[in-house]
Design brief:
Layout: E1 2-6, E2 9-13, E3 46-48, E4 60-69, E5 72-73, E6 81-83, E7 92-101, E8 104-109, E9 113-114, H1 119-135, E10 139-146, E11 153-156, E12 161-162, H2 169-182, H3 197-205, H4 210-220, H5 222-231, E13 238-239, E14 247-250, H6 251-262, H7 269-280, E15 297-300, E16 303-307, E17 310-320, E18 325-333, H8 338-353, E19 367-369, E20 373-376, E21 385-389, E22 394-401, E23 404-409, E24 412-417, E25 421-423
Antiparallel strand pairs: 1-2, 3-6, 4-5, 4-7, 7-8, 7-9, 10-11, 10-18, 12-14, 13-14, 15-17, 16-17, 17-18, 19-22, 19-25, 20-21, 22-23, 23-24
Helix pairs in contact: 1-8, 2-3, 2-4, 3-4
Length: 428
Amino acid sequence: MRIALTGGVLAVALTLGGVAPAQAVGAGSTAPAPIAVQGTYRDGATLRIDAGRIDWGGTASGASVQWMRDGRTIAGGTDERLRLAASDVGHRVTATVSATVGGQQVVAASEPATVQPGATSERRLRASLAALLKRLPGRYTVEARELDGGARLVRIDAAEHREPASIFKLFVAYGVFTRIDQGTLSYDSRLASGLTVRACLRAMIEPSDNYCATDLRQRVGTAWLNRLLHGHGFTGTTFWYDGHRTKTTTTADVARVLTRLARGQLVSKASSARFLRLLETQVWREAIPPGLPDGVRQASKPGTLWTRTGIVQTDSAVVWGPRSRYVLVVMGSNGATTHAITRISKAVYRELEGAGRAPFVYDRQQMRATGRLVLTVAASRSSRVLGTYRAGTKVEVIDSRRTRYLVRIAGRTGWIDNAHLVLRHPIL
């Protein structure tokens, strides 16, 4: 604590709970006197202070609270609690506490903070999505979670158990990176197929290869992976349960894994960066990305699967919008479509980030050659050669078998190695 007498006003500098210093209120005073404010600055939330915890450096009397909006007193804002309303959005709110110490007036203040959209925006988005879902083919569960800003959250049937299609590879990757962080696995470790963990991680995410997903799941251990997931709060996600060779998850669990990944809370810093980069460079961007403006950064993992009740269409993404980051997960069944997920994505972006410019356009020739490509008639490298292609050639990926990709080049369909392929439209 530091006490200074300036212009007849006693300014007190104190630190509460690690809160950054604010400017004290007082004639000619610039001494820091921070107040800790609890709560999120968003409409619908309640902010709280504890005036009794302020260390005034002496006996204080006549303490009074005043909340300020853009430097002006808020009518009725004289309690330790302040409930924020929609009318506060976009305005800077400050808490001040005045007291008399040793015959001098002392005023402490919090850092001004801008109120973000919150409850009102959530209600609007939920109503908008509910109306939209009624008009779309298929059935959908949705979670949109803002990671900063007003921390808005909208869930629609997000706890419902669903077939995840290829989204399940997010959880396999989580297990692999956890094993790497623990030191029980390395990127150079060999799998049953003979490929390295590094090579199969890329193939599992980039073209969503099922063979590498199986290799990696078996290497970390299915039982161990289930224990990891359930022990870390992903209780709605299970692989090969009750003797059934199947898998299940919830939209909430998928959103949770992406939220922790984006916040650096899922795996180590190095593993987080590598995990996100894999999701940024995967080739299937037909669902959530076209609902975003062109140039908006996103890291996504979609999935498609035919079932007896119709097609399952899913997508999940971390989006870095101009105002805030958010996670969006959409899981569709019973004939769901990528176009429907795009419409959901567009509605979420518009509410959380505002109007955007021209949308991202998915290019089916997703990749280009960085070196010589040899196109063969079958997945085997020894099969008949259909043609060779030079660096710069545009490549459409159709399917994969580990590091061998089924592609279409200049009207010809065949198999190539992935060693000389990169995404044509990288996320910068």
